Amino acid sequence: MKLRTAMNSLYSASVSLGSRTWRGFRATWRGRGKAGKGAMGEELSERAYAITEEDEPGLVELAAWRAPEDPPPTLTGLVRHHEVKPRDARLPARRLIVWLPPGYDTPGDTRRYPVLYMHDGQNLMDALTAFARVEWNVDETAEALVRAGRVEPVIIVGIYNTGMDRLPEYTHTATEKYPDAGRADLYGDFLVNELKPFIDRAYRTRPEGACTGLAGSSLGGLVSLYLGMKYPDTFTRLGVISPSVWWDERDILGRVAALSGPLPLRIWVDMGTQEGDHEEAETVEDAARLHQALLEKGWREDDVRYTVYEGAEHTEAAWSARFAEVLEYLYPARGGSMRAATSDE
The pTM is what? Predict the structure, then answer.
């Protein structure tokens, strides 16, 4: 049975079965021997379900795919990992992946660096953990751009999502269809008051808001804009990539319109022309409406960049292909406001 693309990295299919029977299934990737794996890397065995008279749609979480031969880790540069547990029990523990720019570990180096925080951290740098084994190549791209002098040396912090909690944490309202959504305020409080202080203690960062960014795709793009508007003194560089403007009847557009004026934010907004056509799809029309709403609120063209990518789909590969442009806009090598600083500045 072939699955169709849904939203929030989900796939769906429907089948009619007789009641009061047992049915089993196993998820594989395109019939090529790639079986579903759980959050701890365990291979998931065949699932069995009892079909009842009042059967409802079921949801099975797959953390990754087991390929016939798993690829080796694909990390480039100086990378470190952490495990963090939010104080609020409603937010589960999660992993971090931290990429450090060339020269960071030079003995005697006292420079401090701006920081870009990114959602869906497992998809950013390592094919071994990325969705469908396709990563964004954030580490390779940043390494090349920094060495070429095309971007400011920057620390990049990837915050892993936690599977089924991704949608609730990346949305700012609950809806009739998604009553458990709307935990973005909790997630944002964790980022601002727990995660960022931890990173600022652990690494030589420039902690001021002018040097701190937030970026993500899809719902990650939506929550980046929402939290940037809520914490404009903390996050001033926003990567709003393929944003889910459609969420809650396009609530985010109303929030932009309700602002008293432009905030001190530098914002990247983009969309591909082939990202979907269903009611919960990310579309060029919605992204254009967001861009126009920002301009009407007073943002200058220099402070909000809107780009449409012809033929680009809603995939990690598409976001990887344009990440260099995102990073160059948010952290320009010259003329920007975020330069690596010495400790005595």
Answer: 0.81
Segment (H or E) for 308: strand 304-313
- How far is the C-alpha of 191 from the C-alpha of 185, rounded, in Å? 10
Dihedral angle, C-alpha 12, 16, 18, 23, nearest 10 °: -30
Name the 3-class secondary structure at 204.
coil
Say how far apart CA 213 and CA 268 lie, in whole Å. 11
Which pLDDT tens digit goes with each residue over 292-318? 999 999 999 999 999 999 999 999 999
Residues 6 or more apart whose Cβ sits within 8 Å of residue 69:
none
Cα separation, 126 vs 147, whole angstroms: 20
Q: How many CB atoms lie within 10 A of CB 4?
A: 9
End-to-end CA separation in angstroms for the chain: 61
Nearest alpha carbon to residue 196 among 183, 171, 172, 213 = 213
Paired tokens of 162:
């936690």
Tokens of 228: 């940037």
Q: Is 320 helix (H, G, I), strand (E, B) or coil?
A: helix
